[in-house]
User: Which sequence fits this backbone?
């Protein structure tokens, strides 16, 4: 490795930035004067907001241009249907496997089966936690109707309004698909000009993305430093430890075993090769806790490093960033069953197999259905809890670990998108990771 950090590969720079933020948040800031600490946090927030805004700035034009260009460039109309079917089938199966991993682990480890005093202490503080953290404010007014809202978001009344809101990416994707399909029906000369136009925009947006990503280490430091400093590390290592590690182990199993095995079985590539290439994407997803914000880097890395064609990555990755939420689905399942176990520790009854099956179904569907809503996981959990007879207010019990686990599950979500792109590209005969 070169001595000059500026000449390191991007993933090493980001990793060094994370380590630096960890050390500064745990050891440096607590020993500074209050004014210096506050100034450091304010500056960190400033650079993190600039970095996130720069990433979000390219999301909509990159998605629209990439999807339209890829659809116009696809062969026959039947190929669009085939690739679409493969994509949806993969996302459905990977999400189901993730939920099943969470279900099995939470029943084996049983993090919520504690003594009555501990359960009472955790659940007894829920009202205080909700008032202090604003957990209930994030899910206020949400309910089962949000599942139906996904269909409304597929067809926004004003595409420009949807484009100005990065939370409504599903509507942009549907519009782009329809635009691309209709552009394919134009006469050859017009279709060629449309293809060149959108492909040129896509290339410009990817160039902008490459420029923004150069500042990723700085942005990552600004994003992570306040989280490390403010995180209740002492509480995290206390009563919620078992729950935290139940989720974390589930995410790691899905990441390294299920997704790794899928790469080997269906794409016939060494999972380690893909893991190494995706390190910058993985670390950026972890830092930003946003699949959408990571999307520009994901698309750029898949096309330039993994050799996935632009048409395949442009179709699968934006769709995955919107509806493929493996880590989120696993998390929802574990949270609901964890809360159920806490109430069982107070004399209640554990959820039956039928009720647990319902949790699996709802975790899978809500992870897709509310993906575009702020505080998506909280909303999804708030939908599931009343269905199985548990109070919505109990969601406050997970507040200590939620932010850190949000970063972890987002990383799994994004990595699963890249696995989908590789598998589908291989099924289409593309030469993935060609030997040099």
Assistant:
């Amino acid at each position: 490795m070169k001595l000059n950090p500026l000449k390191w590969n991007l993933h090493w720079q980001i990793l060094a930035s994370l380590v630096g933020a960890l050390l500064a948040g745990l050891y440096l800031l607590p020993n500074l004067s209050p004014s210096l600490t506050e100034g450091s946090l304010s500056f960190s927030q400033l650079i993190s907001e600039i970095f996130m805004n720069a990433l979000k700035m390219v999301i909509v034009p990159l998605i629209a241009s990439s999807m339209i260009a890829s659809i116009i460039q696809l062969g026959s109309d039947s190929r669009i249907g085939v690739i679409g079917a493969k994509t949806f089938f993969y996302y459905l199966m990977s999400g189901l496997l993730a939920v099943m991993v969470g279900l099995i682990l939470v029943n084996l480890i049983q993090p919520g089966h504690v003594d009555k005093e501990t359960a009472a202490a955790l659940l007894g503080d829920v009202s205080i936690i909700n008032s202090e953290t604003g957990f209930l404010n994030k899910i206020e007014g949400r309910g089962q109707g949000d599942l139906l809202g996904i269909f409304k978001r597929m067809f926004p009344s004003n595409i420009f309004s949807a484009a100005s809101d990065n939370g409504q990416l599903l509507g942009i994707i549907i519009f782009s698909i329809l635009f691309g399909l209709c552009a394919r029906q134009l006469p050859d000369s017009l279709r060629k000009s449309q293809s060149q136009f959108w492909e040129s925009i896509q290339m410009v947006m990817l160039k902008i993305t490459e420029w923004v990503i150069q500042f990723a280490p700085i942005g990552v430091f600004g994003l992570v430093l306040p989280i490390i400093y403010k995180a209740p590390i002492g509480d995290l290592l206390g009563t919620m430890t078992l729950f935290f590690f139940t989720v974390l182990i589930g995410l790691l199993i899905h990441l390294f075993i299920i997704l790794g095995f899928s790469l080997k079985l269906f794409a016939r590539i060494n999972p380690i090769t893909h893991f190494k290439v995706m390190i910058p994407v993985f670390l950026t997803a972890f830092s930003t806790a946003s699949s959408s914000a990571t999307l520009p880097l994901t698309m750029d890395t898949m096309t330039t490093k993994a050799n996935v064609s632009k048409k395949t990555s442009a179709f699968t990755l934006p769709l995955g960033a919107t509806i493929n939420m493996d880590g989120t689905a696993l998390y929802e399942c574990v949270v609901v069953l964890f809360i159920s176990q806490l109430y069982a520790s107070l004399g209640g009854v554990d959820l039956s197999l039928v009720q647990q099956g319902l949790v699996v179904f709802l975790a899978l569907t809500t992870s897709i259905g509310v993906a575009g809503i702020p505080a998506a996981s909280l909303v999804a959990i708030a939908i599931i809890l009343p269905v199985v007879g548990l109070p919505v207010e109990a969601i406050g019990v997970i507040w200590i670990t939620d932010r850190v686990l949000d970063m972890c599950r987002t990383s799994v979500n994004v990595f699963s998108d890249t696995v989908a792109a590789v598998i589908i590209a291989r099924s289409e005969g593309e030469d993935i990771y060609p030997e040099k």
In short: The mean pLDDT is 83. Residues 5-427 form a domain with the Proton glutamate symport protein fold (CATH 1.10.3860.10). DSSP finds 22 helices and no strands in the chain.
